[in-house]
Write a structure and sequence with these properties.
390 residues, Thrombin, subunit H, Pdz3 Domain
Length: 390
């Protein structure tokens, strides 16, 4: 073979190798490109134009990916605290019906006009006012002062010394009338608002507390509402109201210390409205209050009595004595009998016997559940009217 032919053959072989290399690279490049395109995620649109640096020596450009119209933040509600609360509205409603009662006392003194004062509340548009019996005791004349300072003479319609309630009457138009609420619906812890004239000088004073307890007994008064709303001298006879502006009681007394000298604060008591309403109704229709009467003297069962008499009960009342010719004697009740219930109601701290009797009328027949010599038995008894002074 000639030298020229060998040279041509070598060039052809070299050219074929070069074409194979270049062609394979191109084909591989296209194959890689299409594979990369298939695996790449879908493009994401960037709404804002990128912010590029114009400084050639600056680092890589920073792209602003924040949306041009970001969503608004959650709305802010501005609250305005108003003082038109339930307590304030209740006071506004009742306060015009609250009066100061000025008692010009009878006296043998030839000089001066001794007076006592308390509070009261108008409960009838005809001019009837409720106050405490002790506020008007020993009166020579009575004057009521309304919240606006106007005055009117008052006369006594009737009194009930047992519950410490009195009803007065004035002539002419009254500025407002308070409404009674249902004291049987009261719950310890709910608002209690006292309105009155402490010391007789601070007309329309408002104090706020809660109903501390129900059916309290202080001395011979039973079924009282206990409250920590401040009640001072001069508040007697004024209303205790709820946050609806309803009279739930008539303020009557405070306990500031015990016989042992212990000092107490926030122990005020009011006659419940349901009792007051019944007393007022009887005083207006009969001029007196008639209470149902059993004819016994009794003590509430307590641990000492239960231990002394070897009782297996913790509630009820123990009969200490039976009045002659009384319903109790006629029904066969005896000393040391324990009265456990009247009809279906058990006698306990929440249902004192005196309160249960107040809900009954003379002539009604009741069934008493009693404990005698360790055995329960039932006794029927017909109630009579409580004699004066008993």
């Amino acid at each position: 073979m000639s030298r020229s032919n060998s040279f041509l053959i070598s060039c052809a072989i070299l050219l074929a190798v070069l074409v194979g290399i270049v062609g394979g690279g191109i084909v591989g490049g296209f194959a890689g490109y299409f594979a990369a395109q298939s695996a790449a995620p879908a493009p994401v649109a960037i709404p804002a134009s990128p912010i590029l640096s114009t400084n050639p020596g600056a680092p890589a450009p920073i792209i602003n990916t924040a949306p041009t119209n970001p969503p608004a933040p959650p709305a802010v509600t501005n609250l305005t605290l108003k003082e038109d609360s339930a307590v304030i509205e209740a006071v506004r409603k009742v306060k015009p019906a609250v009066v100061t009662v000025i008692n010009q006392l009878q006296t043998r003194r030839t000089t001066g006009n001794p007076t006592a004062s308390g509070s009261g509340v108008v409960v009838d548009p005809r001019g009837y006012i409720v106050t405490n019996n002790h506020v008007i005791e020993g009166q020579k004349s009575l004057i009521v002062v309304f919240s606006d300072g106007t005055k009117a003479d008052a006369t006594i319609i009737g009194t009930d010394s047992i519950a410490d309630i009195a009803v007065l009457k004035i002539e002419g138009k009254v500025p407002a009338v308070a409404q009674f609420g249902d004291s049987s619906a009261l719950e310890p812890g709910q608002w209690a608002i006292a309105i009155g004239s402490p010391l007789g000088d601070f007309r329309g004073t408002v104090t706020v507390g809660v109903v501390s307890a129900l059916n309290r007994q202080v001395a011979r008064m039973q079924g009282l509402i206990q409250t920590d709303a401040a009640i001072n001298n001069g508040n007697s006879g004024g209303p205790l109201i709820n946050s609806l502006g309803q009279v739930i009681g008539i303020n009557t007394l405070v306990v500031r210390s015990t016989g042992e000298g212990n000092v107490a604060e926030g122990l005020g008591f009011a006659v419940p409205s349901n009792m007051v309403r019944e007393i007022v109704a009887q005083l207006l229709t009969k001029g007196k209050v008639e209470r149902a009467y059993i004819g016994i003297r009794y003590s509430e069962v307590d641990p000492t009595i239960a231990s002394t008499l070897n009782l297996n009960v913790t509630n009820g009342v123990v009969i200490g004595s039976v009045e002659a010719n009384s319903p109790a004697e006629k029904s066969g009740l005896k000393e040391n009998d324990v009265i456990l219930a009247m009809d279906a109601t058990r006698i306990d701290a929440d249902h004192p016997l005196a309160v249960l009797l107040f809900t009954r009328k003379a002539g009604e027949t009741v069934t008493l559940t009693i404990l005698r010599d360790g055995k329960e038995m039932q006794v029927k008894l017909t109630l009579t009217v409580r004699p004066p002074g008993s």
